[in-house]
Amino acid sequence: MFWGFDDARDFKEGFAAVQKGWQCGYINTKGEQIVECKFDDTHRFSEGFAAVKKDGKWGYINTKGEQIIECKFDDTNYFNEGFARVKKDGKWGYINTKGEQIIECKFDDAGDFSEGFAVVFKDGKCGYINTKGEQIVECKFNYACYFNEGFAAVAKDGKLGYINTKGEQIVECKFDYADSFNEGFAAVAKDGKYGYINTKFEQIIEYEFDDTNYFKEGFAAVLKDDRGGYINTKGEQIIECKFDDTSYFSEGFAPVQKDGKWGYINTKGEQIIECKFDD
Questions:
Q1: Residue 163: strand pairing partners
Q2: What is the pLDDT of residues 130-151, one digit of tens each?
Q3: In what order do the strands lie in the sheet with 109-110?
Q4: 12, 17, 169, 263: which has the highest count of C-beta atoms within 10 A?
């Protein structure tokens, strides 16, 4: 059923892009060709729409394969929170799911909306707009991250801090590194070492690690002396740093690497599946 394609991508929202020759289309999970291979390029479906390219221009189709936004943009991205960023004549703006240009193409670059705000770039600086296109934070930062859990990391003069959704500088730009908040915590770095702050911006885990990752399911992967382990939200080392590589916990398990092979541990640090896989 699925054979006969020159290329095939992952399923997303029940559909996968496939390629025959130089043309792309879509199949559903039954293997039925719901959109014939007639486009020059395609993106995955997101929020019920997928970007497609024809004759050098991009537009959008819906899950029925209907062309709901004509191919007229120079570049596009996925829909996120009901909006997609689009490029025309070298500038970026946003459209809604009706194809209406709700924010004109006037930015040098633009990011996806997250929690109702998007990073935009002008003259080498970045700031934020809301879904009405209002500039809620002027373009004054050297770097700006997406909002998560009500805060966004921003950079100025080589240091990072945090702003809230009102655009107020909640934490001055003083960190060498600042990650997005996840599960109430964010990794920050100073003088080559990493620790964590909470949403009250209290230093709840000191700068003691060589590298860190964000919390997921109450645990975060940390690196010490080139070995990976895990801490909990109290900063307790619940799994010692003994692995060559680590990843996030998902549904109570995390993949870990030792001696070039991968296996799985549980949240108690018990080796549930021995390290025997190549990847």
A1: 152, 169
A2: 999 999 999 999 999 999 999 9
A3: 109-110, 117-122, 125-130, 135-141
A4: 17
Tokens of 227: 């070995």
C-alpha span between 126 and 145 (Å, rounded): 10
- pLDDT digit string (tens) for 201-250? 999 999 999 999 999 999 999 999 999 999 999 999 999 999 999 999 99
Could you tell me which of 158, 118, 112, 160 has the C-alpha nearest to residue 139?
118
pLDDT at position 3 is 57
Query: What whole-number distance in Å separates Cα of residue 154 and Cα of residue 139?
Result: 11
Q: Could you give the CA distance from residue 195 to residue 151 in angstroms, rounded to a whole number?
A: 18
Can you name the residues that pair with 258 across neighbouring β-strands?
Answer: 261
Assess contact for 226 and 191: CB atoms under 8 A: no
Average pLDDT, stretch 21-32?
94
Query: Amino acid letter at 137?
Result: V
